[in-house]
Structure formats: C-alpha cells, structure tokens
C-alpha cells in the first residue's frame, strides 16, 4: 500500500509541470494583452502601452517570463492580480468556499440519487423503472449545461418564483462569513440571532438548489449508469450465489455482498467526475452569478489577468489531482487485492 | 421417510413462448445420512436441479414439480423468508470453483461468521470460537491467523475448505457438493474428497455429490443417479449399477472410466453431444447417440420405469436381453 502511494505521488510532479506549461501558453495565445483589454475602446499611445507592459514584466521574452513564473511558484509565490492587485492566493481563498459548497452539494446529490437509481435499475433489470432511469441518464449525460441552467431558471425562478435567480444569498441578509460555507454561516447566524436572521438558512438553501441540480445532472447520470452496469456484473458473480445459498436476506445480498464490490469502479468514476465538475462549475457559476472560482476564472480570462488565470487554473487542477489521488487510495482500501499488492 | 423428495421436477428458462427445459420430469430421493452421486455430461441439468431445489433460481427459471419436500417441509409452497431459514442452515451447498465462490472484499472469518450469526445467533467470543473450530474441522492449518485472510490470499484447495466450513457451519442435514474438486489440482482433489466423506460421517449428514468422476462415486456413494439432457436416465444402488448398468448411456459412461481415470474434467462417452435447446429429438433424448437405437426410440420418449434394482428410462434396457 505504501509503495502504491509513493508510486502515485511520483507521477504528480510531471503532471504539475505540464499544467504550468499549458496554462502559461494558452492564455497568451488569446489575442489582446492585459493593457489593451484594460484600455478597451480608447486609443492607446504605443509608448504608454510599452511602459505599462514593462511595468508588468510582460515585455520580456516568453521563455524568461516562464522561468520567472516557475521561480515564483517554486518559492510559493502565486503572484497578484494585474487588475485588483490582490494576491491570487487570497482571492482564491475567499472565493473557493463558494465553489466547494456547490461542489459538495452536487456530489451529495449525484451520489445519493445516482447510486440509488443505479442499484434499483440493476435489481429490476428490464423493468419500466430500469428503462426510465437509463433513458433519463442518457438524456442527462448529454444535457448542455448552459441551456439546462437557463431552462430551469425560466421555469422555477421566473415562472414559478420558487427559487432566486442568482447569487448565494438575498441582499437583505448581512451574514458574517465565518466558515465561508453559506449554509453553515446562515445556520450559525440564525441560531445566534433568530430575530434578524430569520429565514437566512432557507434562503441560502434555495439559492443552492438550482445550481446544484444543473451541475449535478451529468455526474448523476454517469454515476447511475456506472452503478447499474457494475451491479449487473457483480450480481452474476459466483460469490453472490454463495451469499444467497447461505440464506442471507436479499437486502444483505444486494447491499453487503454485491454493492460493496460494485462500488469499486463507481468510486473511480466519481473521482473522475470532480474534474468534470470543475469544468461545469465555470459555466454554472456564470449562469447563476455564483461568486466562486469558476466565475473568477472566466472574469480573469476576459481581462487577460495572466497571474490569476495561470495560478487559478493550476490550483483547480491541483485540487482535481488530489481528489483523484484520494480516490485511488480509497480504491485501494476498498479492494483488498490492491491493498495487499507488494 | 426420505429427507429429500423430488417428484417430477421441471425447470424452464427463456421466454414463455420459447422455453428451454433444462430439467424435465426429474425424480430423486435422498435419505438421511446417505451419499447419493449424480453424474452426467456438462449441461445435463445437475446444477440447475440443485439450485432450483434451494430456491437459487428465483427470477431466472420457472420451476414446477409434483413434490419438492425437504425434512417434511414443502419447498414449493414455502415463503421465501421461511426458505431462507432452511437454506444455508439445514441444506447447504458448495460449488465448483472455490476461487470465485468467496467474496473478495471480506475476510474468511467474516464470511464464516456471517452464517453463524444469521442462523445460530452467535456473537462475541462464542462466535469467533465456533468459527475457529470450523476452520480446524476442515483442517485449515494455522486457522487462527487465517481468519483475517482475504480469499485472494488462499490457494484453491484452502478456499474450498473455507467454503466447506461455511457450508457445514450449522450442522446441515443435507450437503450438496457440486463438483467440489473439479477446479482443483489432482493431489488436492483426493484430500478434499476425503475431508467431505469424513465430515459426512462425523456429522451424519446426507451428501449429494455431483461429479464427473465415476471412480469417486464407486468409492464413496451408496446410490447413483445418471442424468442426461435434463432427465434421470438411470437410478439405483451403486454396486448394482456398476455391475449391471441398465441404460445404454450408463454403460457408455462406465466404459469410459479406464481411459479417463481420476481427474478427468469432462466425461466424453458416446460420439456426439448432449442436445441443446433447439435440437432435442422428439423420441428418446439419447437416440441420436445410442448404439442400441431402434425405430421405437425415435418415435416415442421412454418413461423412467422402476425395476427391482432401480429405475431406468429406456425402451430396451440392457437387463432385458430378449426385447432387443
Ligand atoms: N440461469 C440460466 N439461464 C438459462 N439457462 C441456464 C441457466 N442456468 C443453466 N442453464 C442451462 O441449463 C442447462 C443445464 O445446466 P447445468 O448447469 O445444470 O448443467 P450441469 O449438468 O451442471 O453441467 P456442468 O457439468 O457443466 O456443471 C444448460 O444447458 C445451461 O445452459
Ligand atoms: S430408448 Fe432406445 S435410444 Fe433411448 S437409450 Fe434406450 S435403446 Fe437407446
Ligand atoms: Mg454444474
């Protein structure tokens, strides 16, 4: 197991290196530099442009800029935003809880309903429920996030007025950010001062529901399909027959002897979904004006805020890698054959 | 009264419109404490018969029978819940491939203790004590340390011993061993067979031994059922059948023993194969392969007919020299 972890860790370094190269290169491929974007429509004096670029250190040859960038990274310096002059790390740390809160809600939603639907579909294979779930999963899997988000907003927010259209909390509330997680903060605030903050938690929850559904649709579909096929495979195994021959209840056969083994590939898929989730978060946060990392990155790209883009993406990528890494370890724990591998 | 009574059991797979009868009109009785051998080529319905009896085909096969009785309980009308109180406790089964029969995610100890908890309500120290005792009964060396082992850490022979320990955990009245040694090395095969027979005697349980190995049957079983294409071709006492087989198929099986000897994986007897779903003849199922075939065999399907030494399904049984 230990060797297994070491081996996985060894793969991380080249991956990081690759990511820095890609983000550094890609953002510079987009036409327009930060100074031009800032000035916008107004005409720009070439001399001023050159001075500004020099101040930002963007007049150096590309390879030198890259070396500087790596040097800063190596010393733990993530730089500061060209636009706000705030440290990139600080901005990230402020906005990240919003994304994390959304992502957690999404994974919870997708895992609970995906597993449930997949297990039932497998047990009732060939039934109407099975066909229904698999049909929906296929639809969900190919759902364009942007369109899906707008449809839900039009129906639930605009037509029915059930959920708010954007943001994390109604402006009427003034909640001190203690944990950064709105659900927890509003809960605490309501507990501390039930008079003033009445309804804050519910309001935060209502803000969260639609984005979570939009972002959770694809992971939900993927998890449901994977769970179903994995369950069907394991149900055919000899050891499931053994379990039934022991006289165990159907529930025990399904949830202990079958699901336990069927979960192993599902777990991997869930881990991979975190990457998809971060991509989806960019769109979802933009649609719902959710003040998280996704929206931050989009804004940074449109402003050609190089340090924010480079390091923001690097941090998101690191996160995805770490999650996948954790999943790999969990995979090892769930699967004794890997845990005991030399 | 017999411990197990099966009368006219049929098992169908496939759709109602296009069914496949894997077992057809099967009769079998097993008495307390006896060993009954069942032999027959691959696909003859040996496993399906036993799984149907234990209720393991739920949702897969349709089962009809005139009688399906175990220990005075009617298995045909019993509720699923009541059947689960019998299955794994009074009737248990071990399977052909021990390497896939144990759940890879749970320790050997967990899987043995699971049965004890369920059927005997054991827990705590008594539970562990009994599990250890069982491991020792099936002669697993260093049993205490093996309780925490995972199936992939065991050899095939060891895994089969664990499966046996699980099966005999609640002192069953009937143990079904479905080709318990086929997947094992030749040297291990003999050990496992020995273990099964000695447990059968010490626990005084009935044993149904499904096998391809007629030599083993001759050695250990009191009675024998020969199956062909979902039916019993011949049934009787082992010495009688071995001395004077009444069915042409049995005769062919017995002739094949010397060439195959111990360890043969599949019986190959007469030229041709067991008829499958679409090529079942309308007359005697053996007629395309039978060396004694006559016109009547092709037209008319024979019934399982008792005679003094047993029962045989053939129009022209071999003891009846005049009829041919
Ligand atoms: N779940 C199932 N669905 C459909 N057909 C099945 C099923 N299980 C078994 N059969 C068919 O029933 C027939 C009898 O199978 P069975 O497993 O009882 O044979 P067997 O005598 O045990 O053979 P072997 O010696 O290979 O174990 C075979 O033709 C098999 O394909
Ligand atoms: S009935 Fe005829 S074909 Fe069938 S086994 Fe007897 S002799 Fe052979
Ligand atoms: Mg079989």
Properties at a glance:
heterodimer, A: 342 residues, B: 324 residues, alpha/beta, eight-stranded mixed β-sheet, 13 helices, globular, binds adenosine-5'-triphosphate, binds iron/sulfur cluster
Oligomer: heterodimer
Distance separating the two termini of chain B: 37 Å
Mean pLDDT of chain A equals 87
The chain-level mean pLDDT of chain B equals 90
How many DSSP H or I helices of chain B?
A: 13
Strand order, biggest sheet of chain B? 7-8-9-3-10-11-13-12
Radius of gyration of chain A: 24 Å
Going by helix content, strand content and strand pairing, the class of chain A is mainly alpha
Note the overall shape of chain B.
globular
> Fraction of residues of chain B in helices?
25-40%
DSSP helical segment count of chain A: 15
Give me the Rg of chain B, rounded: 20 Å
Q: What is the tally of beta strands of chain B?
A: 13
What does this entry look like structurally?
The complex is a heterodimer of chains A (342) and B (324). In chain A, helix 6 runs antiparallel to helix 12, helix 8 crosses helix 10 and helix 12 packs parallel to helix 13. Chain A is 75% helix and 0% strand. With 342 residues, chain A is an all-alpha fold. The longest helix of chain A is centred in the last third of the chain and has 38 residues. Chain A is built from 15 helices and no strands. With 324 residues, chain B is an alpha/beta fold. Chain B has 13 helices and 13 strands. In chain B, helix 5 crosses helix 7 and helix 7 packs parallel to helix 8. The longest helix of chain B is centred in the middle third of the chain and has 18 residues. Classes of the chains: A mainly alpha (342), B alpha/beta (324). Chains A and B meet through helix 11 and helix 12 of A and helix 2 and helix 4 of B. The site of magnesium ion (MG) has 3 residues of chain B, from helix 1. Iron/sulfur cluster binds next to loops of chain B.
